Each structure stands twice: as C-alpha cells, then as structure tokens.
Amino acid sequence: MAFRVSRGILKNIRCSTTMRPLNTCHRSLSAAIMSSSTLSLEDAEQLFGLVSTKQLLRSSAIQHAMAVESMVDLGMWAMKSKVFESGMMKDVMMSTMRQTVYAHFCGGEDAAAAGRSILALNDTGLRSMLAYGVEDAHDNEGCDKNLQGFLHNVDLSKSLPPSSVSFVILKITAICPMALLERLSDLLRWQKKDPSFVLPWKQDSLPIFAESSPLYHTQNRPEPLTPGEESDLELANQRLLELCQKCEEANMPLLVDAEHTTVQPAIDYFTYSSAIKYNKDNNPIVFGTIQTYLKDAKERLLLTTEAAQKMGVPMGFKLVRGAYMSTESKLAQSFGFASPIHNTIQDTHNSFNDCSSFLLQKVANGPGSLVLATHNIESGKLAVAKAHELGVEKVNQKVEFAQLYGMSDALSYGLSNAGFQVSKYMPFGPLEMVMPYLIRRAEENRGVLAASGFDRQMTRKELGRRLKALCSKF
C-alpha cells in the first residue's frame, strides 16, 4: 500500500514539534571528548540526558521483556499463528503489538507519524534513515505502488529540518518482482562460471562476485530472459532511475538494503549500475550494503572499490553483519555446500572490523562515504579509535554510525556525544506491512537482546538517578 504526503500532513509535521538545529545540545557535550580516541559509555546521565522519562520507561520494559527468550518465542508464535488471523483474537494481538513492540521498533503508521518520530530523534541529536516498510513485490502493479511510497519518502525528508534524515532506504525487492530478481541472479552467477555467457541486457556495473563467492544456487545453465522478462526488467530499471533522479535533485542519499544470497547478485547489479550513473564529484547518491558475515565480503569489497576507483566513481557503502544467518546455512546445506556465513561469531566480528578499517582509510584518503551499522560496542570503539588515528576531521562528514530504531540507544548517544554523525534505521508503515520486519528482528536478535544487558543496565541507572532526583525534592 503506497501513501501520499500531502501539504497538510507536511504542515502538521512542521508545526507539531519545536525544532532546533541537529546536534545543538550534543555538540557542547562532545567538545571535551573529541580529543580522546575512546568511546565513553559510562555516564548514564550524559547518554540519556535528552531522552524523556516516558520513553526510557517504555524502552526499559521492552528490553526486559525481549531478554526473556520464552516471551519472544510466544510473541513470534502469535505473529505467525492462524489463531490470530481474524476476529477478536487478531484485534487483541494487533492492539498489543501496536502499543509495545511496534511502537518501540517502528516510527509510526503513516508519514505524519514518521515525521514526528524523526523530529523527536532530531531533538536528542540523532538522525533518521527513513525506511518505508514494504518488502517483497511479486508483480508490476505492486512494484509501481511501492515506488510511489519511496518517492514520497524523499518528499517527506525534504519537508523536515535539514540533516534530520540522513538516508532514504530502498529495498530493490519492492520495486522489482522477486521471481525476476531470482532469474537475474541465476544469469549473473552463470556468467561468473562461464565468462563467454552473454547477457545482452546487462548495463555497466562493478564486480558482483569474488573468486570465493558461493555459486551453488545456480546448478544448471539458465535460459535467457523471455521477452516478457526483458520488458519487466526495463520497467524495474525505470523505477530505480526515477527514484535515483529524485534523490539526486533533493541531494538525499539512497541506501539500498541487502537481502539473502538468492537475490543479492541482482540487487548488487542494480545498485552498482545506478551508482555509476549518479555518484559524482565525491557525492555518492546511491549506497550499497555489504554483509560482513559472508566469507567473501572482504574480497568483494576490495574488487568493487578498486573497479570504482578506476572508473572515477565515488562509492558509498553501508557495512552490516547480516540478518539471514539461519536461512543461508539451511539453503547451503540443502545443496550440499558449506555455509557462506563465517564459522564463528568472532570471525564475523573480525570481518566487520577489518572491512570497517579498510573503508575508513579509503574515505579518509579519497572520495566516498561510509555507514557503519553496528550494535557491537567493541566495533564502535575500534572505529572511533581508527577515525582518530586517521584524523577525525578527514572522516567526520563522510562517516555515519547507525543502529536500528529501538536498539542500542546507549551506543548511539555515546557515539553522538563523541562528535560523530549517528542515525537510527526507522521503518514505518501500517502494522500489517511491517510485520515481516518485526518477525525478523525477533528471530535474528533474540540472542543478542538476551545476552547483552548493557542497554538495560544503563537505562535502569538513568531511571534510578531521575527517581532519586525527584524524591530529593520532597
């Protein structure tokens, strides 16, 4: 379901909240910290000083609930169960979800609500990555509707205070039918296996595969695209170019999310061919995503950046660990291959930190920009130390740290206090639309939320301090 941003909505957003320049409060806090190469996360008052008590109470309740794995299991069962598909049971579950998990992890059900959430974050010194919550599309009609939603995201971002929105997020799976993405990925993989395999529709792009990249998804030589598929591909190209053009005119970066490896080659192809057209003069408009839990991540990153440098294309990358671990391992096993995911969590941490260090050096000494999307405190500390080693002034406007809306707030505010740009990835849209996102957050982050008590500890500490301060007045 697409939405339209009317002038009335934009006016209401502007008038509903008192606005002030980004990071006005945090810059004064960061001045004393900037000379240090460490990330300070010990002072709860400094971290959460601009967050309302109401917000802290809700965050604390959600954090503690999601740290109980049996409760997460129950919630996931409810979200997937046919018992809650209709009637009063569905109404009860949806109401509960809307007031708890949805309110914590999503920015709202429409553009006006998302705008208010963005302004509230902006008042605490954080920016927003605006993510319209549609995911997979299966026909051209759905893709066209989804495109309108992404285009209106750009309008919404333009209506808000400068720099309060750092990126508009795009899922290629929402503007190109999934079946076509799978076909394109098969054809691209086969061309990697057999360079003589001709793809007449292929535009200029950057390296998509490395020698270590998994190709087991495509067991047999695929048939060429049919005339109907070629027509659908042209429509998908037109949608992406229309969105890129609008982002270029608004000077609003477009960040393409990564997906599972079944369709990721096609997503990289679309991303890189668009980057070649729109990334100019050290101003990346189109950003791609590298999932560092994949064993071939560093090798692909090296090949892609080298090719982009030779072509004079400034690249923008978002580094993440990844969100499809169980899916990838099961798929590889079904083909009789080893998982493409690193064998240990420490190997994944090492991969993320290695790629982070490499790209920080790249942007410090040349063109390009970088988003470090991590909830890992150690990765944050290492990146901050590397930035200081390279010279903060060289990377400060080229590097964005990012965390999911509703997660790792202590790290977000700590990085902001240290003088860095920090964004929250903020999905929005009707609850039914963002349900796949919420299920994925529960499935992929349940262990993280249960094992890491840092945010819970710091939130409790700040709430305790405020309670003592209130009691001392009586």
UniProtKB/TrEMBL annotation:
From which lineage does this chain's organism come?
Eukaryota, Viridiplantae, Streptophyta, Embryophyta, Tracheophyta
Cofactor(s) for this protein? FAD
Give the EC number(s) listed in the UniProt record.
1.5.5.2
Please indicate if the UniProt record lists ATP-binding as a keyword.
no
Q: Which SUPFAM superfamilies match?
A: FAD-linked oxidoreductase
What is the official name of this protein in its record? Proline dehydrogenase
Enzyme class, first EC level, given as a word: oxidoreductase
User: Family assignment?
Assistant: Belongs to the proline oxidase family.
List the Pfam families hit by this protein, alphabetically: Pro_dh
Which regions span the lipid bilayer? none
Q: Which domain of life is it from?
A: Eukaryota
Please name the PANTHER family in this protein's record: PROLINE DEHYDROGENASE 1, MITOCHONDRIAL (PTHR13914:SF0), PROLINE OXIDASE (PTHR13914)
